[in-house]
Amino acid sequence: MADKKKKWADNVQGAYYVDDQCIDCDACRTEAPNNFKRNDENGYSFVYKQPSTPDEETQSKAAMEACPVEAIGNDGHKTDNETDHKKCNATGT
Ligand code: SF4
Fold first, then answer.
1. Backbone angles phi, psi at 29, to 5 degrees
2. Is 88 or 65 the better-scoring residue by pLDDT?
C-alpha cells in the first residue's frame, strides 16, 4: 500500500500520488499518460496532473490497480495539510 509520507516531492498536490516504492515499470504512464510522468533523471514515476475528467479518473484508477508494487495512492481529496479531524462534525462542547 502506498505511503503518503513517502511520496515523491514531484507529485502535484491532490488525491493521487506515487511513493518511493516505484520501480519505474511504466505501467501507470501507459494507463494514464495524461496524469503520470517519468522523472528521467532518477527513474521513477510521479503524478504531474491530477485527473480532471471522468476519463482521466478512470485511467488513473487503472494505473493504481496496474502498479505491481502498490506505489500509487489515492487519499481522496485531502491536501497534505488536511487531517482527518477536519471531517469530524463534533462541536467539542
Ligand atoms: S506502475 Fe507503479 S511501479 Fe510502475 S512506474 Fe508507475 S508507480 Fe512506478
1. -70, -25
2. 65
Q: How many of the other CB atoms lie within 10 Å of CB of 25?
A: 15
Indicate which residue's Cα is closest to atom 1 of ligand 1.
Answer: 67
Q: What is the DSSP string of 23-92?
A: ---SHHHHH-TTTEEEETTTTEEEESS---SHHHHHHHHHHHHH-TT--EEE-TT--TT--GGGG-----
- Nearest Cα residue to atom 8 of ligand 1: 22
Q: Which domains are delineated in the chain?
A: 4-77 (3.30.70.20)
pLDDT of 24 higher than 90: yes
Q: Is 62 in the pocket of ligand 1 (CB under 6 A)?
A: no
pLDDT at 66: 98
Write down the pTM of the prediction: 0.83
